[in-house]
Structures
1.
Amino acid sequence: MTQLKKAIIRVYWEGRSKPEDIEVQYNPTEYTFEKQNQIAEIQIPGLDSPLQQFVRGQTEKLTLDLYFDTTEQGTGAGATSVTTETDKIYQLIKIEPTRHAPPILEFVWSSQLAGSNVGNAPGSVAGAASQSIGSAIGSATGAAGSAIAAAGSVPGSALAAAGAGLGNQRRTGFHCVLESVRQKFTMFSPDGVPLRATLTVALREYKTLQNQLDELHLSSPDRTHVHVLQQGETLAAVSRRYYETPADWRAIASENGVFDPRRLTPGAFLEVPVLTLRGSR
């Protein structure tokens, strides 16, 4: 008979060389991941609907119920309180004196945790996603007309790599901090000792800045972008956004045939070219 694998909450206590694994008493019957993105709408007169622009990702959250029971040790006088088990979880929301914050955690149960297959080779889920992306880009190009067509098509090899490029974001555990815990005690001994409990736990994703930079491998000057010009926006501002300096605005002006950078049309599509050397393409 296969031995049941218990879910654990791994605790990275401040100042300790090794993490502590807290094993749940009973595995959860279900858990829920929630991840959202913040999307801004760009209003352009004359279009059927606003353009959608990604702003940033939002923190992912894992919620689950954990069950605890100490009735096997008896229910009468001298019964063992279920808080001997629940406090192992409850303590994780408390502030560590040396860290000035609750400890960093990791929820681990199976190597097939949601997110463990992100970035698989095209041909399965990632391949289907790449094909969908290609269709969406083609539709958008046709609808937007020649203004977007100037940006060129996305190479097939880039689409094929769209899923594979996400491989750094795979996970087999969920690094997090304990955001909230709600304790519900449902059975008591004659002396009032709690014997059964359900803990509703919310775990909030925890990633350092360096973790995110290593995962995302974000790039800017080495790829072509299409930018929708906003009211009052200058070419120098566009240059700063994509090249991290306003000094290369002339490359954008040259690419788009802009002769007077002070006379720009809000809502116009600008191609932001690749820079291989400072100020050149």
Note: The two ends are 64 Å apart (CA to CA).
2.
Amino acid sequence: MEYDIVVVGGGPAGLSAAYSASKMGAKTIVLEKDDGIGQFVRTSGVTWIEDMKRLGIPGKYYNPIKNYRIVCPTNEVTIKGNSAKSCVLDVRTSYQYLASLAAASGSEIMVKSQVRDVIMNPSGRVSGVKVMTPRGEFEFFSKLVIDASGFSSTVARRAGLVTEWKRYGIGAEYECFCEGLDPQTWVLMVGSEYSTAGYSWLFPVSEDRVRIGVGIGRPESRSDPLKILDELIRKRPRPLDELSKIQPLELHYGIIPNEGCIRTTVHDGLILVGDCAGQSNPLILEGIRFAIDFGRLAGEIAAKSLSSGATKESLKSYENIWRNEIESRIGSALKVQSRWLALSNEQWEKEIDILKNISEDEFLDFIKADFTTSKMLKLSIHHPQVLARRLFDLVLRR
């Protein structure tokens, strides 16, 4: 089978890449290893309303959030907003919406199609993939492959272009029926009671459904996040004790890279996008907005590059654009995250005291890793406490 572009991975990055490539007239196919788009939820779904509106994601696919609660064993703060600025996606339906956009633009989508190997030409260039499908094994030849396979980096790794991730976050969460829930407030829980190296969360999906999860940083901890999660639900520490009923309905499990941006995301005949490119915010391990944004960019530039042979040079503008937008922010966020992982319960208590004095916009700029020089200077000037000074040092002093 021959295509202009083969996209490996039917998540938000791959579907968005296929959508824009097909709109540009490229013959495109998406290969998804699972039985259906969004069949297995691998993300908590937290993102930002401003980005979803800009990217054209309808409001019916997310639950709006306007309050942000941070809890440690001995302290807490709730930062209240006047309007909703964050949101929690209905991951399955939003991914299927992205699939519908790709299909409507002309892309083919094949589910239950697992890449088994990469086809290389004599010069060592990726020229297609070997895939096991429900109809048997097939070879898909293409002028360009887009690797949007997430943590596994299936194509790039099999082509010998990347190695396995050494630092990553691993998370387990239950989506639960719940009573006594505030659907407009998400909660982060920090400290050793909630995670051995990371945090736990309550992310409302609707008035009576919530995602309760635990994230663990590797290699800082080898703990099993599911065991910690089960123990949290059994013991009901604050704020879980405020919920009158918690009934798990689904189990979600996910892994996200946590090393920052990879060295290069373009090669002759190959683009990497989404998690396999390291395009995620390390502070709360969210990257759906980047996946959609840079997936569309990758598809557009990939389609334009076909007339030039899809060479690395013809793909370079993709890498330049996305790095200019987020690479320095991700690098700064990694420094902050590294400090967070080392905090004791007593230190978290002091950090939360300082958070009580910052505004909603200052908190959101920080948690979104929007570390512009002007914003960090304002934070340091307005809040000359130890936390603000440390953040200034971490983020702006290279």
Note: Confidence is low (pLDDT under 50) at residues 392-398.
3.
Amino acid sequence: MMEVDRMKGKMQGLTLKADWVPREGFTLGSKDIEGRKAYLGSRVWKNPKLEMCGYDIPSPGPGEVLLKIRACGICGSDVHFSQADDEGYILYPGLTGFPCILGHEISGVVVEAGEGSLDKRTNKPFTGGEAVCVEEMVWCGECRPCADGYPNHCERLDEIGVNIDGGFADYLVAPTRLLWSLDPLRKMYTKDEDLFAAGSMVEPTCVAYNAVIERGGGIRPGDAVVICGGGPVGILACAILRRQGASVVIISEPNENRAKLALEMGANFWIDPTKEDFTGKVLEYTAGMGANLYLEATGLPMLVYPGIEKAIWEGRALNATVVVLARADENMPVKGEVLQVRRAQIVGAQGHSGHGNFPRAIECISDGMDVLKLNTKRLSPDQVAGNILDLQTSKDECKIICIMPE
């Protein structure tokens, strides 16, 4: 086992700080913690700012390991944590707790292991040097949702890089139940930097997998799907559904560069909803049937859902499923009559854990689903904060990954 010299002092971590100023009318929820943790972040956190701060290197306890971080991706949620609305409140509407080291798309190397820490790939104790990725959802395994098999909805849920410290730092302590070996990816990525960059993309791949396969129920070979939103998760959903056998994979995305990436990863039709009739094009590309599955991954359901609903209503296909994945504060305008008459349904998707999502996503990547096609920029730790701020207004990059020094 490798030893960490804690006598050398501090590590650095990119920290988001914000003020707890609940909006008028906000009521503390049963799982919220006054001044520290809220399940409706955009209702309480104001004046976000990013700072590089010094921290003690943490020590792993029983069932935990210390990771040396090797790569960490920037997610849209990192952007929305740091982006304020006109009143100064963060845009992200979900679970949050600040101050917190950001970063939850993590890969790294095990350098220390606490008592009873087992590598689930070998079912033996960690020996040090194992390359792993990390689930972001810290589920307890003991509450009723966890016991029922729904860890993404844990009643004691914490999230790495969201309300507890994350991966834009030198080191991270994580429970071993959240770790997954990157060894299967070595046949796909022979260079260490690529291995860990791809490892950091397992988490968003699992978000997409959970949304369209676990929550959306997947598809049958020959089905048609529509992905609204060409961010990394939307593009990865295109790749996953194509591998599952979708014959028509439509990406709806105004940014041409992101749409081209989606087409390279598995989509075979592109709609620019700012220039084309979304519903008309969906019906054209599906010979009037409409899609079997729609994924809302834009975060703009009030704009996007009416077009989806119209395609369900005017299309001939029954039993469509709409998966709502992207977080949004706004209400979604829904007509129950359309769902009833067309036998359609809307489901929500949160997280990525459980249901074999991580090992299956890793095997998909290992089998040739090259997630690094989405990696349009790599940078060093000192560049992360500036790039998070740039992403508030620019959509030129798809997936930006921070490569940490060895």
Note: The chain has two domains: 6-200+370-403, 208-348.
